[in-house]
UniProtKB/TrEMBL annotation:
Classification via Gene3D superfamilies: 2.20.28.10, nmb1532 protein domain like, Zinc/RING finger domain, C3HC4 (zinc finger)
Feature: compositional bias, Low complexity: 579-589
Segments for region (Disordered): 540-592
UniProt key word Membrane: yes
Gene Ontology terms, MF aspect: ligase activity; ubiquitin protein ligase activity; zinc ion binding
Residue ranges of every copy of the RING-type domain listed in the record: 1184-1226
Main location: membrane
Protein purpose: Probable E3 ubiquitin-protein ligase that may regulate the response to iron deficiency and thus contributes to iron homeostasis.
GO cellular component annotations of the record: membrane; nucleus
Protein name in the entry: Zinc finger protein BRUTUS-like
Oligomeric and partner information: Binds zinc and iron ions.
Amino acid sequence: MGGDDGGRGGDGCGISPELASQTEAEAAAQPLAPSCLSVSGAQLRDAPILLFVFFHKALRAELAELRRLAAAESGCRGGSNNGNLVVEIHRRFEFLKLFYKYHCAAEDEVIFLALDVHIKNVAHTYSLEHKSIDDLFSSIFHCLDVLMEGDANTAKPFQELVLLISTIQTTICHHMLKEEEQVFPLLMKQFSPQEQASLVWQFMCSVPVLLLEDFLPWMTSFLSPEEQVNVVNCIKEVVPEENLLEEVVISWLGNNNQPFGSPTRIGEEAQSVGPANLKDALKVYSSKSFSTEIRQWKEVFGLKTNVGQNPVDGLHLWHGAIRKDLKGILEELYQIRSSDSFSTLASAIVQLKFLADVLIFYSNALDKIFYPLLDLLSDGCLSPSYKRFPDESQIEGLQRLLHYNAKNGIPLSKFVEKLCWELESFVMGIGDHLVFQEMEVFPLISAKCSHELQKWLLYMSLLMMPLGLLKCVITWFLAHLSEEESKSILKSIKQEDSLVNMSFASLLHEWVRIGYSGKTSVEKFRKDLQEMFKSRSSFHSDQIEEDGGSFFSPSDAKPCKRSNPGLMKPIPGNKATHSVNDSSSSGSHTSEKYGTSYSSGINLHIFFPGTLKIFHPVPNFPDGMGDASSILNLEPRPVDLIFFFHKALKKDLEFLVFGSAKLAENTGYLADFHRRFRLIRFLYQIHSDAEDEIAFPALEAKGKGQNISHSYTIDHKLEVEHFNKLSFILDEMSKLHISVSGVHLDKMDQRMLKYHQLCMKLHDMCQSMQKILCDHVDHEEIELWPLFRECFSNEEQEKIIGSILGRMRAEILQEIIPWLMASLTPKEQHAMMSLWRKATKNTMFEEWLGEWWDGMNQYDIAKVVEESKMPQPWLADPLEVVSRYLSKEDTSEEVSEKSDEFLQNDSVSANIMLPGNHAVDNKEKLLNEDHDNHQCSECKKPYSENEKKRSNEVADVTNQVNKPGQLLQDNQQFSHQEHLLSMSQDDLEAAIRRVSRDSSLDPQKKSHIIQNLLMSRWIVRQQKSHSEVAVLGSGKEIPGQCPSYRDPLKLTFGCKHYKRNCKLVAACCNQLYACRLCHDDVTDHSMDRKKTTKMMCMRCLVIQPVGPTCSTASCDNLSMAKYYCRICKFFDDEREIYHCPYCNLCRVGKGLGIDYFHCMNCNACMSRSLAVHICREKCLEDNCPICHEFIFTSSSPVKALPCGHLMHSACFQDYTCTHYTCPICSKSLGDMQVYFGMLDALLAEEKIPDEYSTQTQMILCNDCEKRGTAAFHWLYHKCPYCGSYNTRVI
């Protein structure tokens, strides 16, 4: 993907060579251009649909040229006002906007509808992107209007214009690249060349003739000669086999007159005002320049009226045909309403649609041609009653019914009643307008315009119709005329006239001749028209019969429809002599006659875009949701985390635009801006990867979301390229900024000039990036994320979000959490943390968050509460509770009262831990037995402040001894200890009985107290031992204050477990050990490494606060190890370690998202090769079934069994020497077919005694869990279902 000259079409797009030469920085500042697209290998003759790609090339080239013109004026003129250039750019953008509107409308109403029949959920995304371009054109015209006002200083407006042009250029090129990568390859795959030609022809027949005459030569002007020949040959294949029609279209392609949009025409004044030079589309569609043209027509044609019938009088016949058909349709609807027979309703709807199209273009001709002329002839005093005919509200009201969808479930009888009422009002309004034209407008034209000017007006009115509609209108109009009236029209067209194009006049003459021949009656025309509209109609006559009086649209048949499905697959043919809308053989006889079929939807796109929302609404999302804001107002759900990220991303994109504008004035701001940009780029890459690899595949797996996300994946790829280009410019700016201080003054000026140019390009690209990314996330929120709410339950959403979070390392979370919080409101912050906690409820994430992030207390909301299997912890000293029950003076009631007071206090952690290993382990390899080296990941937060806090906490604990009342408490504690050591076994049994008889205690509390009673003497001995050690340690030397070596020969510091340059001071016994494991090997208790606050450097032997380096001056910041975790107080100088924020432990490996991920349900770090695994809730928080060591903190590798249970790898090897079933669930530990085959052979040779040979036994298979019968045997019983011998007799 991408191109070599950034949006100018690449090689072969007709761009002059001088525009293609750029520096790397200039190329980086331009939008992407296609080079090796998926469609590049196809030839136009084999894939006519690629004609749209040639239109893309023309768009790219024109936008690049307009940007070049504006940039040159902005940079070279120093703010002077060049009015001619501004007018030139304005006129070219008017033309470009008009072309782009028709191009988008053709894709939406022709191409995308056809594709949606074959492949669902692709086209709607691109239709959304079409709608997001209009605002950019409006901004450009506003800026051009400011420049045209003629202010003295136009430097800033020109700079703003360049930015706007660059933004629209990047946005449109980005959109076209996506289409060329996804849409057009699908079209070439799904449609034959003949069907593609039919689609192209339908587009050409839906564009007004006046515009098509300009669009085609404008497009070919940007192509190479070879490409122009290919386009001409393609058009010949696309146009139906009608000689005159081919001649007309080819004449447009070969028009020697430069089209309005071409560079050579811009700025030149027309040398003559003859009709041959007055066909520019913009001069008709733009009211600003039309008054000048009218004055020229007035001078050329004159106002004298010739003797004889006026050509404009023919419009009376036109009005008569309109009145007659509208009246006939209304009468037909009255009959349907009175008879409740709906068999002819579809025919009436089609006729109304056709007449609505006719009236739209007639109204446009009056508005753009007739009324401006009359206004000029009346010296600007035209009556206000000359208004649009018909007005927009009348058309929208009618179209709302004509394109009615059955989702409201209105019965046909009520629909017909409503249609009759609407049509009555419409006919009345149209009648008034027609009378006004006949009484006021036509007489004025007849009186003041010559015959030549009247003919020209009528001719231009015809040119404003699309080619397909024009042919249908001729047939329809002639069917209403008498023979004499038809001859008169035929004679008028046959007359040679310099005012009209003769090839087009010949085509009109032929079409009128065919209509005059009488082969088409009004009834036959209506039948043919119905066949042509059939596939686009909201409902059909055969459908009405099936529905039995209720209104149903084909678009409701499948819930995942995202666009109008009416367009059916066209019938193949040798040439495109048929319309793609002909969906059945019953309509094939009209395909040749109406090969110039048009799309009514394109006309509505252009003239009444608001009406499209009625029958092309935003996809129906649950609860009526249509955007992100409405979703966020609902109850928070896990997928809403995506919206929070989008909001933060949009805020930072605004920062990039604002910050890039400051760089030119404040060069010292560059380093901060570059740092912030790298953060945004890094977080966006994580977000897009998570969507592409987790969220989107999950949605695609659902039937409703199939194919819907591929467009957004392409977005991610193209946006990464934009980020890379921005990064390249920032690197260039950084090099210039660094080297400026060391150069001479003259070179400094040159470098500063280049620096300012790069600043402008950076600001340009940041603004374009903001537009692209904001549109991208907005479209995701409109189209994709509501589907997640609809298709996934809360549990499934939590699993998806958990999978995304499980790939994020601790370092990433340390960046992303504060970044998100800074962009959210307090309510959103609490909602986000609540959702995050729910997704990680089975993990240690909450614990890690509290240990790492001081700001967590600001968002301390209700936590996810879960029942614990462990006894409730207690605040008070267990010896104090025990002493109450040992005291013989206390009565049972007194003891109960005291115990209740104590037991009502809840705590987060117990003061007494059962013997066992609950510390962090750094050597664990979960579910992966590989011993590869992994990249080290370090905590990024500064350690000095945290170490100070740790030291202060230790000091606070020490100072508490001197508080008042402490001495009395110590004396009481000493008395309790002495009593516990001296009590007899009888005293202990008596205390246990007192606890058992205490009715105020629940069973759980009783168990806890009895356990403490049984362990009380051991606890006292441990406390006394620790006290003695603390007293000994208060001297100058602590036991173990000497270095230890991992390799004594090489004098490598460490121990047999780890390589490191420090020892740890165990908080439990105040002794020095190289590691926790060394401590546990020689003591009868476990070391809690997280409570470690001091360490000893093994080089200087100085005891100091724990940290990554030695704090003494003699060691010169000696590193204690390559990896240091401030949470676990863990050091390692050999292996690659990462801290998992969900285990809150250090693990061996490169990190989450690299070679491991964390399963939130299992609460385990697993190899990425185990992405699909049997998931068991908190499976690691259990003991090994063989050695009974706690697996979560075990230092030994762990083996995952096929059933989902776990055991140590070493235990597995020993266990499987004699067993093949899981010790927990008894399922087989692997594929045992070989072993079972051996048992089959053994039993076949074994002879069963006769008295047992006929007996059977009921068995239960441990593998398939089915009950069955098996032949009697004293040891082996085979499952009749799965063939397993892993069974038991029941």
